[in-house]
C-alpha cells in the first residue's frame, strides 16, 4: 500500500502548513497543563507534605522517648538516697568507714546484700530492663589502658519484661553478685552469672558506664550527682546477649567521698519495641534510628535501629553521616558511601538528656526517622507519572485526529500530483479538474509552465550549439527512471552511435551505455564533487571530460565539459613544477613528495637505500671550460642515473651538483648494494672528454643510508646519507660510503653546524677570555692566554670550531678572528693587563695576508709588543708561514711560544725549527705529575734541555696544589691552570692567599734541597 502524501513528513504540503499551527497549539496547551501540574508547585507541595508528616511523627516519638528516658528510666533520686542511707547504716553497724570498703572483704558484700531490695525497687519503679550497683573499692584510676583489666564487686539485676511484674521476683535474674548474696536472695542466677564485674581496657564502651561518671565526679566535686550522670553507648554485658544502653550516676557520701556507681540499663531489644517503624510507613519502608553525635559534625554513632529499611539502605553500618545543610527543616540528606548508594533522608530530632555545661552535654542524642527519597516521594512520583501518561494519550488522540483530517483534505491534491508524475515531460501536460477553485487554477498554471519549459530547453540547446561551448548535460528522473540528454552529450563522449535511441532512454539503458565507455583514468575531487575522466578521441588521442553531478530527491542532473586543453596545460605546468629543466629528473619538491608518499606506506619499502651523490669535478669544469660544459656534465650524470630508473628506484636532482636516489622494495641490503655499485662503476666508466683532458671520467662521491636499520624517517635518512657523502668527499673523493652511526655521533656537528660556522664568522660571534700565566717563583702574573669562546650555544668548544673550519677550508677566517678580536680585547683591558703579555693561539699553517697584517699594525701597533704568539701543534706546520710570522714577531718585539708541546705534529722538529721563547708543556704531561714517576722523569729531561737553551717553560693544566708543588720542585718557570685561575672575560689577579701559598711552596722546596 502506497504511503499517503500527507504522511511523508519531508514534504512541505499545503495541508501540513495548515495543520502545523494546530499541532503547535495543542502541544503548547499540553505543556502549559504539564507546567501547572508538575512545575506549578503541586508536586513540590505533595513532597513537602510528605516531609512534614515524617517530621511530625518523629517529633511525637521523640517526645515520648525523651519523657521515658528523663522522667522514668533516669529517675533515680529516691534510690540514691535510700542506698546512701543503707550504706551509712552498714558502715555504722560495722564500725567502719568508706575507706574500709577497699580493705575489708566482708564489707562490700554486706553493702551489696543490704541494697538488694533497693535495687529491685528501682528496677520495678523505673520500668527498665536492668539495674546495678558497682563499688569502687580502692580504685582511683578512672581509665584503663589497653590490655589492662579489673574486677569490681557489684550487684547487677535484670528484668526481661519490665512491663510485667511478678510478686516472687521469678522474672528477675542475677547477672553479677557475690556468692553469699546469691544465696541470701530468692532471685535466680542468670546463665552468664559471675561473682564480680570485669572491666577490660580493650573494650572501653563496656566500661564507660562505670568510669565516665566516676571520672566526672572526681573532676567536678561541686556538681550534683544528677549533673554527673552518663548515658552510655550500646555494649554487651555478656558476649552472647543483645546490646544495652545504661544510665549511671556516681554514689557519694555526705562528705563527697565516691564509693560506687548506681545505674539502670535498657536493652536495645526493648528500645526497638517502643520505636515502632510502622508508624513512619505502614509498608515498613522506614526505620527509626537512635544515635549519638559526639562531635556535632553530623556524624552519628548508631545506638539502635528498628525495622529492615535501614539495614537495606546501610547494612550493618555503625555510623550515619548527614549532609551539612538541611534538605527541609530538620530533615537532612544522608551522605552516600560505598554501601549507601541510594538517595535517603533523615528527620533528626535531638533529645535533651543533659543539662548545659555538664561533663557530657557534648553528647547529642537524637531520634532519626530514616527513609529513602523514592519511598517518601512515592505518591508525588505516581501523580507525576499519571499526569505524563494522560498528557501522552491526549496528544496521541489529537495527532491521530489531525492526520485523518489531513488525509481527507489532501486527497484531491495527491490525485493531481499523480497525474503530473505520470505525464511525459516532453509533451504538454493535461490535468483533470478537481472542482476546487484554487487547485484547478494551480493545475492550469502547471499546464502553461510545462509548455514554456519545453520551449526554453529547446532554445538553450540551440544556443549552446551555436556558441560552440564544449558542454553537455543529462538528467535522470528518479521517479520515472526517464533520462534526458542534450544533443551534444553522446558526441562529446564519442558515443554518437547511440544518438538514435537517445530520445527513448531509460535509466537502465543509460547506465549500460555509460558502462561501455572505455575510461583510461579517473580522478574524483571530493571537495568540489567533480570527476574528471580520460578517454580516447577519434584520433586515438587522450581526451579529458569533467563531470559534475547535482542530486536531489527527484532528479540527478549531470553536466559534462571538455577540459582537454585545460588538462594538457595543467599537466605541462605540473611537469615543469616537478622536474628539473636541465636533467628532466625529479626536482627537490617532487622528490620529497615521492618520499612522503612511499614512507607513508612502509610495507612497500621493505629494505631501502637513500643515496646522495655529489659531483666531484663540477667546479673545476665550470671555472675552466664554462658553465655550458658544466651543464653538459650534469646532464651526462643524469642520463646515467636514468638508466637505473625503475618502479623500485627514483632519482632527483636537488641542487647544482647534488643528486638523490631512493632504491626500495628489496628483501635485503645485499640485493641493493650491486645496484649502487653498478651506478658508481657506470659513472667511472663514462668519459666526459674535454679539450685538455679527453679521458676525464664522470666522478661523484656518494653516501648511503639504509631503511630501516639507520632510521625509519626519510628526513633522518637524507641527513645520514648527506653525512656519509660529506665524510667520503673530505677523505677519498669518487668513492661511495655507507652511513656509520658511531662516526656520526662523533662528527655530526661537522655537518649539522655548517651554517652555524658561517653565522659565527659573519657575525663575529666570539669573545676572548683570559687565563693568568703565573711566575712560579713569586706568584706574579707575567701574562694571560686569550682563549676563544663562542657566543653560539651550538658551537661549544674551540676544538669544534677549528674542526668545522678545517672541514670547510675556513681556517684562515678563524685566524683573522683570533688576531683582530684578541688584540681588540687587549686594547680594551690595557689597565687590567698592566705590563703582562697576551698569549695568542695562532694556527701554524695559516697566515694573514699582507693587507690584513698592515691593517692589524695600523690598529694595534702600540700593543703588539705585548703579544706572545702560540703556534698550535694540532696542525702541520707550514715552514714558509712560520718564517713570516717570526719576522713579524721580531719587528714588533713580541714573543713566540710553542703550544701543547708533546702532543702535536713533530714537536721536536718544530722546537729546533722555531727556537721559541716559551714552550708550553701540555696538560697530558702535567696531570698527576706529583704521583707518576714516568711523567716526572720526562719533565726533568725537558726542563734540563730547555734551561740549557734559555727557553722559558710554562706548565699547562695545573689543577691541584700537589701538582703545583711538584712543578716548583722540578724548576718550571711559569704555570697556568684552573687551580690558579679560570678563564674570565676580564683579566683577574691572584688573591693574596694564592700568592702566599706559592711563596710557601717555594720555601718548602728550598728546605727539601
TrEMBL record:
<dbReference type="InterPro" id="IPR050706">
    <property type="entry name" value="Cyclic-di-GMP_PDE-like"/>
</dbReference>
<dbReference type="InterPro" id="IPR035919">
    <property type="entry name" value="EAL_sf"/>
</dbReference>
<feature type="transmembrane region" description="Helical">
    <location>
        <begin position="386"/>
        <end position="409"/>
    </location>
</feature>
<dbReference type="InterPro" id="IPR001633">
    <property type="entry name" value="EAL_dom"/>
</dbReference>
<feature type="domain" description="GGDEF">
    <location>
        <begin position="606"/>
        <end position="741"/>
    </location>
</feature>
<keyword id="KW-0472">Membrane</keyword>
<dbReference type="InterPro" id="IPR029787">
    <property type="entry name" value="Nucleotide_cyclase"/>
</dbReference>
<keyword id="KW-0378">Hydrolase</keyword>
<dbReference type="InterPro" id="IPR000160">
    <property type="entry name" value="GGDEF_dom"/>
</dbReference>
<feature type="transmembrane region" description="Helical">
    <location>
        <begin position="18"/>
        <end position="39"/>
    </location>
</feature>
<keyword id="KW-0812">Transmembrane</keyword>
<dbReference type="Pfam" id="PF00563">
    <property type="entry name" value="EAL"/>
</dbReference>
<dbReference type="GO" id="GO:0071111">
    <property type="term" value="F:cyclic-guanylate-specific phosphodiesterase activity"/>
</dbReference>
<protein>
    <submittedName>
        <fullName>Cyclic di-GMP phosphodiesterase Gmr</fullName>
        <ecNumber>3.1.4.52</ecNumber>
    </submittedName>
</protein>
<keyword id="KW-1133">Transmembrane helix</keyword>
<dbReference type="InterPro" id="IPR043128">
    <property type="entry name" value="Rev_trsase/Diguanyl_cyclase"/>
</dbReference>
<feature type="domain" description="EAL">
    <location>
        <begin position="750"/>
        <end position="997"/>
    </location>
</feature>
<dbReference type="Pfam" id="PF00990">
    <property type="entry name" value="GGDEF"/>
</dbReference>
Amino acid at each position: 500500500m502506497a504511503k499517503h502524501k500527507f504522511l511523508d513528513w519531508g514534504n512541505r504540503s499545503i495541508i501540513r502548513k495548515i495543520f502545523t499551527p494546530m499541532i503547535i497549539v495543542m502541544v503548547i496547551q499540553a505543556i502549559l497543563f504539564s507546567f501547572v501540574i508538575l512545575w506549578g508547585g503541586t508536586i513540590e507541595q505533595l513532597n513537602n507534605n510528605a516531609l512534614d508528616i515524617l517530621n511530625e511523627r518523629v517529633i511525637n516519638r521523640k517526645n515520648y522517648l525523651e519523657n521515658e528516658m528523663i522522667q522514668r528510666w533516669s529517675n533515680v533520686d529516691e534510690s540514691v538516697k535510700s542506698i546512701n542511707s543503707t550504706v551509712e547504716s552498714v558502715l555504722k553497724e560495722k564500725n567502719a568507714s568508706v575507706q574500709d570498703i577497699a580493705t575489708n572483704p566482708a564489707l562490700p558484700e554486706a553493702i551489696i546484700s543490704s541494697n538488694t531490695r533497693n535495687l529491685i525497687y528501682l528496677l520495678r519503679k523505673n520500668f527498665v530492663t536492668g539495674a546495678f550497683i558497682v563499688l569502687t573499692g580502692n580504685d582511683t584510676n578512672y581509665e584503663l589502658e589497653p590490655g589492662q583489666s579489673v574486677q569490681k564487686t557489684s550487684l547487677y539485676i535484670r528484668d526481661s519484661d519490665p512491663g510485667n511484674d511478678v510478686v516472687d521476683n521469678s522474672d528477675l535474674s542475677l547477672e553479677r553478685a557475690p556468692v553469699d548474696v546469691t544465696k541470701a536472695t530468692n532471685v535466680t542466677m542468670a546463665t552468664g552469672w559471675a561473682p564480680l564485674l570485669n572491666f577490660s581496657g580493650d573494650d572501653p564502651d563496656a566500661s564507660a558506664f562505670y568510669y565516665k561518671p566516676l571520672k566526672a565526679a572526681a573532676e567536678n566535686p561541686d556538681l550534683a550527682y544528677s549533673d554527673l550522670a552518663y548515658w552510655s553507648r550500646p555494649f554487651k554485658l555478656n558476649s552472647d546477649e543483645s546490646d544495652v544502653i545504661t544510665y549511671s550516676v556516681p554514689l557519694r557520701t555526705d562528705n563527697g567521698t565516691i564509693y560506687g556507681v548506681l545505674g539502670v540499663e535498657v536493652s536495645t531489644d526493648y528500645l526497638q519495641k517502643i520505636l515502632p517503624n510502622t508508624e513512619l510507613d505502614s509498608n515498613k519502608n522506614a526505620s527509626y534510628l537512635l544515635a549519638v553525635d559526639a562531635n556535632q559534625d553530623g556524624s552519628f554513632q548508631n545506638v539502635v535501629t528498628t525495622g529492615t529499611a535501614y539495614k537495606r539502605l546501610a547494612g550493618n553500618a555503625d555510623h550515619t553521616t548527614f549532609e551539612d545543610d538541611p534538605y527541609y527543616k530538620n530533615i537532612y540528606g544522608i551522605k552516600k558511601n560505598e554501601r549507601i548508594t541510594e538517595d535517603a533522608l533523615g528527620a533528626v530530632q535531638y533529645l535533651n538528656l543533659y543539662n548545659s555545661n555538664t561533663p557530657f552535654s557534648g553528647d547529642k542524642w537524637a531520634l532519626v526517622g530514616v527513609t529513602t527519597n523514592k519511598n517518601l516521594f512515592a505518591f508525588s512520583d505516581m501523580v507525576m507519572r499519571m499526569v505524563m501518561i494522560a498528557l501522552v494519550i491526549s496528544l496521541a488522540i489529537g495527532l491521530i485526529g489531525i492526520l485523518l483530517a489531513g488525509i481527507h483534505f489532501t486527497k484531491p491534491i495527491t490525485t493531481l500530483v499523480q497525474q503530473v508524475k505520470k505525464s511525459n515531460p516532453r509533451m504538454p501536460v493535461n490535468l483533470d479538474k478537481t472542482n476546487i477553485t484554487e487547485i484547478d487554477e494551480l493545475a492550469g498554471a502547471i499546464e502553461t509552465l510545462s509548455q514554456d519549459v519545453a520551449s526554453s530547453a529547446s532554445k538553450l540547446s540551440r544556443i549552446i550549439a551555436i556558441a560552440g561551448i564544449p558542454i553537455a548535460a543529462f538528467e535522470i528522473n528518479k521517479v520515472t527512471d526517464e533520462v534526458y540528454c542534450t544533443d551534444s552529450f553522446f558526441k562529446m563522449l564519442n558515443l554518437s552511435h547511440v544518438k538514435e535511441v537517445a530520445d527513448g532512454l531509460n535509466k537502465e539503458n543509460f547506465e549500460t551505455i555509460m558502462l561501455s565507455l572505455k575510461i583510461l583514468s579517473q580522478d574524483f575531487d571530493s571537495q568540489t564533487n567533480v570527476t574528471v575522466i580520460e578517454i580516447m578521441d577519434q584520433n586515438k588521442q587522450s581526451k579529458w571530460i569533467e563531470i559534475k553531478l547535482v542530486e536531489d530527491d527527484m532528479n540527478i542532473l549531470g553536466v559534462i565539459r571538455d577540459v582537454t586543453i585545460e588538462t594538457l596545460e595543467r599537466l605541462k605546468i605540473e611537469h615543469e613544477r616537478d622536474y628539473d629543466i636541465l636533467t628532466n629528473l625529479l626536482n627537490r619538491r617532487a622528490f620529497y613528495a615521492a618520499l612522503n608518499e612511499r614512507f607513508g606506506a612502509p610495507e612497500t619499502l621493505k629494505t631501502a637505500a637513500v643515496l646522495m651523490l655529489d659531483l666531484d669535478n663540477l667546479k673545476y669544469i665550470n671555472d675552466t671550460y664554462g658553465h655550458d660544459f658544466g651543464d653538459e656534465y650534469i646532464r651526462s650524470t643524469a642520463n646515467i642515473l636514468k638508466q637505473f630508473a625503475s618502479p623500485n628506484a627514483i632519482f632527483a636532482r636537488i641542487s647544482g651538483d647534488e643528486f638523490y636516489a631512493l632504491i626500495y622494495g628489496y628483501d635485503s641490503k645485499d640485493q641493493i648494494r650491486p645496484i649502487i655499485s653498478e651506478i658508481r662503476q657506470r659513472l667511472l666508466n663514462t668519459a666526459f672528454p674535454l679539450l685538455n683532458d679527453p679521458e676525464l671520467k664522470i666522478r661523484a662521491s656518494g653516501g648511503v643510508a639504509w631503511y630501516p636499520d639507520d632510521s625509519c624517517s626519510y628526513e633522518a635518512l637524507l641527513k645520514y646519507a648527506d653525512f656519509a657523502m660529506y665524510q667520503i668527499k673530505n677523505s677519498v673523493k669518487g668513492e661511495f660510503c655507507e652511513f656509520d652511526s658511531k662516526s656520526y655521533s662523533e662528527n655530526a656537528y661537522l655537518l649539522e653546524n655548517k651554517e652555524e660556522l658561517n653565522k659565527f664568522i659573519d657575525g663575529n660571534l666570539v669573545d676572548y677570555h683570559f687565563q693568568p700565566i703565573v711566575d712560579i717563583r713569586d706568584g706574579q702574573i707575567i701574562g694571560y692566554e686569550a682563549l676563544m669562546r663562542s657566543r653560539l650555544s651550538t658551537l661549544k668548544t674551540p676544538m669544534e670550531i677549528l674542526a668545522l673550519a678545517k672541514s670547510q677550508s675556513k681556517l684562515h677566517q678563524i685566524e683573522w678572528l683570533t688576531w683582530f678580536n684578541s688584540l681588540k680585547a687587549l686594547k680594551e683591558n690595557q689597565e687590567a693587563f698592566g705590563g703582562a703579555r697576551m698569549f695568542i693561539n695562532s694556527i701554524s699553517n695559516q697566515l694573514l695576508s699582507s693587507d690584513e697584517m698592515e691593517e692589524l699594525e695600523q690598529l694595534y701597533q702600540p700593543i703588539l709588543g705585548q703579544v706572545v704568539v702560540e703556534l698550535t701543534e694540532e696542525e702541520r706546520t707550514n715552514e714558509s708561514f712560520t718564517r713570516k710570522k717570526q719576522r713579524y714577531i721580531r719587528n714588533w718585539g713580541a714573543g713566540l711560544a710553542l703550544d701543547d708541546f708533546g702532543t702535536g705534529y713533530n714537536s721536536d722538529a718544530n722546537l729546533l725549527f722555531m727556537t721559541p721563547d716559551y714552550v708550553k708543556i701540555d696538560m697530558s704531561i702535567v696531570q698527576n705529575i706529583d704521583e707518576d714517576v714516568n711523567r716526572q722523569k720526562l719533565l726533568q729531561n725537558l726542563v734540563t734541555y730547555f734551561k740549557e737553551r734559555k727557553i722559558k717553560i710554562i706548565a699547562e693544566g695545573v689543577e691541584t696544589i700537589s701538582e703545583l708543588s711538584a712543578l716548583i720542585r722540578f724548576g718550571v718557570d711559569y704555570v697556568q691552570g684552573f687551580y690558579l685561575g679560570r678563564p674570565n672575560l676580564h683579566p683577574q689577579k691572584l688573591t693574596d692567599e694564592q700568592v702566599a701559598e706559592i711563596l710557601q711552596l717555594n720555601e718548602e722546596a728550598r728546605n727539601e734541597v
